[in-house]
Amino acid sequence: xxxxxxxxxxxxxxxxxxxxxxxxxxxxxxxxxxxxxxxxxxxxxxxxxxxxxxxxxxxxxxxxxxxxxxxxxxxxxxxxxxxxxxxxxxxxxxxxxxxxxxxxxxxxxxxxxxxxxxxxxxxxxxxxxxxxxxxxxxxxxxxxxxxxxxxxxxxxxxxxxxxxxxxxxxxxxxxxxxxxxxxxxxxxxxxxxxxxxxxxxxxxxxxxxxxxxxxxxxxxxxxxxxxxxx
Length: 230
Fold this sequence. Notes:
Elements lengths: L1 E5 L14 E2 L2 E2 H11 L5 E5 L3 H10 L18 H15 L6 E4 L9 H13 L4 E7 L9 E2 L5 E2 L3 H6 L11 E11 H5 L8 E5 L11 H14 L2
Parallel strand pairs: 1-4, 1-5, 6-10
Antiparallel strand pairs: 2-3, 5-9, 6-9, 7-8
Helix pairs in contact: 1-2
């Protein structure tokens, strides 16, 4: 199984986040090391447009056979297009025959090697088209409300309103993709739609599910890593 780590250089929410030190290690290093330790990952490919990110990831053990084109690294670029570009080029120019892949976002440093292996094992056991890492929402989605320009709470769904007074125990759990791991067939990737009747969720606890997009997310991940090391 090949792992693709996408890491463009132009982060806006937290500039330079992919190489920002987290407990003394660049953020992207956590994901490369987890992939190296996963039993079912055979090759780690970095997809980036940034020379500094490429150099750091390579030092940790990722392969950077080519750089991502600028048009696939802009703020408006679609991530799926970058994955497809990477697989197509690996297949056509580097002798790969990729029919399935694992996508590991570098913004999920709390994910462990066993989560990667577990998602891949579920993918094969279910003969799935896709497996996506998820964590349970801390509160029922039925409690969610909108708010208008005057600050008035508004309904977003009539069925939610009917269930909004239910106790938490009476509401079925809902799950949010946590960004930590995606395993899918290349055929499914080409549809640019990861969901369907053969897409399964790989459940992860919230303590492994940080998805860094801001300084608050980064500090939370740092806190959780410190707690893990106590």
